Recover the amino acids of this structure.
């Protein structure tokens, strides 16, 4: 039972960090999957397989270099020279994503509950910083606790979407291709989506995997997390595709679908999306702070608090716009990271087989 709890804890934390606000609301899934129609659903399956393989690889590699930070694992994967470059870029990216989540949470609170965006951003920052102050196992528990609720919501909304669709699939497929697409081809979109999200997810999975009680548990945690991500991608993309004629132009498609069903469900969905914003902001800010300071120390807490406050300033002076221009670059950086993760994993497996014989 303790092994199952350990595996699920790692898996849920991995999913919680990757999902974020755009994933949960359906906007990212719309652009990278649903907008490609039938092919987009296949793209969801491809992404799920990639997340599964990479999750297993990072999970097992995290046990080779157990650490509170992702630095050692990153250097193990990329080597000393490339590792320095990738380390600096990912550390910056972790912080950039935290800033985006602060602003995104503020915008959601303003839209749904009438709280001024700047106050909402302050609230998200304070909650995030306070949770990051906790030990890594409690951070993982918080991030993982929201994932089961999200899965249940998405199953319900997907069923509702298909039961209420008005158009035949052929017409929905035509409409889907008129929506903004995240890439020029469905397969490129699927791979780019995995690439970008692994830049966010791999560092925290390295930290979470290091908390595993065995290498097997770390590997299975990555496996289950990857499978669950794939399941969610297909589920959300199918839900958006089923009603793409009515919700395809919405900023938050799944939230619009939930609100259409009932005001209460819309409110619950808003809370879930807000919680997913928090899980992502907590995961990336923890990874960022743990890279620079030793967790559970006074310096770590002070540094995290300062980073949180500066994040609010960064959001105000247009830092988010800067991040928006470098997102595609980090997507392609993710391809490099994915390749080196697989190379390092194959090397580890080969060494294990040699020792076994």
């Amino acid at each position: 039972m303790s092994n199952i709890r350990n595996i699920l804890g790692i898996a849920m934390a991995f999913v919680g960090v990757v999902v974020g606000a755009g994933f949960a609301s359906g906007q990212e899934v719309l652009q990278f999957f649903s907008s490609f129609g039938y092919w987009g659903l296949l793209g969801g399956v491809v992404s799920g397989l990639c997340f599964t393989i990479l999750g297993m690889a990072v999970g097992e590699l995290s046990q080779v270099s157990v650490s509170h930070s992702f630095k050692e694992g990153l250097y193990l994967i990329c080597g000393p020279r490339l590792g320095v470059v990738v380390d600096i870029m990912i550390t910056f990216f972790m912080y950039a994503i935290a800033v985006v989540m602060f602003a995104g949470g503020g915008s959601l609170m303003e839209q749904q509950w009438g709280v001024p965006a700047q106050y909402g951003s302050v609230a998200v920052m304070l909650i995030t910083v306070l949770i990051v102050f906790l030990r890594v196992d409690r951070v993982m528990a918080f991030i993982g606790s929201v994932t089961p609720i999200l899965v249940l919501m998405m199953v319900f909304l997907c069923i509702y979407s298909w039961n209420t669709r008005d158009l035949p699939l052929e017409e929905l497929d035509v409409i889907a291709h008129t929506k903004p697409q995240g890439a020029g081809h469905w397969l490129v979109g699927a791979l780019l989506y995995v690439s970008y999200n692994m830049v966010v997810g791999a560092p925290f999975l390295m930290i979470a995997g290091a908390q595993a009680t065995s290498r097997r548990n770390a590997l299975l945690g990555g496996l289950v997390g990857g499978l669950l991500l794939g399941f969610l991608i297909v589920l959300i993309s199918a839900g958006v595709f089923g009603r793409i004629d009515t919700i395809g132009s919405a900023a938050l498609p799944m939230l619009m679908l939930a609100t259409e069903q009932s005001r209460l469900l819309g409110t619950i969905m808003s809370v879930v999306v807000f919680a997913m914003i928090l899980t992502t902001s907590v995961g990336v800010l923890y990874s960022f702070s743990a890279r620079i300071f030793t967790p559970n120390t006074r310096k770590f807490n002070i540094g995290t608090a300062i980073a949180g406050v500066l994040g609010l300033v960064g959001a105000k002076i247009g830092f988010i716009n800067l991040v928006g221009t470098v997102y595609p670059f980090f997507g392609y950086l993710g391809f490099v990271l994915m390749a080196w993760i697989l190379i390092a994993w194959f090397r580890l497996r080969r060494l294990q087989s040699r020792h076994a014989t």
The chain has one domain: 2-356. The first helix runs from residue 2 to 25.
